[in-house]
């Protein structure tokens, strides 16, 4: 897959395939944007939201555990989930965490991109898009922090990062369609045509 669409876009496709094929184990596509569905998505910051332990406990399976509790001293690799053996401890720890999180400041929405952020000379070019180079370019524009320390972040113009690459997404899907659907049909056609000679 990475050979067809590149390393970064290969990760994107793995996530898409997971959404289409395996997300049913955690409630399906309807439950994927669980947190964002009940929140205002219009501002720059998003408030913290309360966890729904009963909902996630119902969806908990061995394949996709949605509730976890580990003894880190005895199991630092987190291989033995103890949530099923100690449901009261899970409730108590979650209540304690909710108490701390309730006073947390709103969080910056991480999927937003500043439209004026520095970009390299190859970013967004047709060749870069067709080659699915992602953020790996031959020519780069080195930069560090580009905003002053006292910049009011609410005054910047943002776009959702995922939506900024619509052409790139279309190219990825077209390449996958060609490789998964068209190429096998062409090979089958050639094999049948060769066999009927």
What does this structure look like?
The structure is a single chain. The chain has about 200 residues and is mainly α. It is about 40% helix and about 5% strand. The chain has 7 helices and 4 strands. The two termini are about 35 Å apart.
Itemize the secondary structure elements and their pairings.
Blueprint: H1 2-5, H2 7-21, H3 34-37, E1 45-46, H4 53-59, H5 87-101, E2 107-108, E3 112-114, H6 126-130, E4 158-160, H7 166-195
Antiparallel strand pairs: 1-2, 3-4
The biggest sheet amounts to: 2 strands, antiparallel
What is the structural class? mainly alpha
Give the strand content.
Answer: 5-15%
Determine Rg (CA atoms, Å).
23 Å
Q: For the residues shown, what is the average pLDDT?
A: 79
* SSE pattern, N- to C-terminal: HHHEHHEEHEH
Provide a count of the helices. 7
**Helical residues, percent:** 40-55%
| Beta-strand segment tally | 4
Could you name the ranges where pLDDT drops below 50 across 5 or more consecutive residues?
Answer: 32-37
Strand order of the largest sheet: 1-2
The coarse silhouette is: flat
**For the terminal residues, how far apart are their CA atoms?**
34 Å
Question: What keywords describe this structure?
Answer:
4 strands; 41% helix; 197 residues; flat; mainly alpha; two-stranded antiparallel sheet
């Amino acid at each position: 897959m990475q050979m067809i669409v590149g390393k970064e876009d290969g990760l994107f496709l793995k996530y898409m395939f997971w959404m289409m094929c395996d997300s049913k184990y955690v409630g399906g596509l309807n439950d994927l944007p669980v947190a964002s569905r009940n929140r205002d998505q219009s501002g720059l910051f998003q408030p913290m939201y309360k966890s729904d332990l009963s909902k996630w406990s119902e969806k908990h399976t061995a394949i996709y555990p949605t509730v976890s509790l580990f003894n880190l001293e005895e199991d630092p690799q987190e291989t033995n989930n103890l949530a099923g053996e100690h449901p009261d401890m899970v409730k108590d720890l979650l209540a304690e965490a909710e108490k701390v999180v309730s006073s947390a400041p709103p969080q910056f929405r991480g999927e937003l991109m500043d439209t004026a952020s520095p970009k390299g000379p190859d970013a967004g070019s047709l060749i870069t898009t067709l080659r699915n180079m992602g953020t790996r370019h031959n020519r780069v524009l080195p930069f560090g922090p580009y905003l002053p320390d006292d910049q009011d972040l609410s005054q910047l113009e943002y776009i959702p990062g995922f939506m900024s690459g619509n052409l790139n997404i279309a190219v990825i899907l077209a390449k996958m369609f060609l490789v998964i659907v068209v190429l096998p049909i062409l090979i089958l056609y050639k094999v049948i045509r060769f066999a009927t000679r």
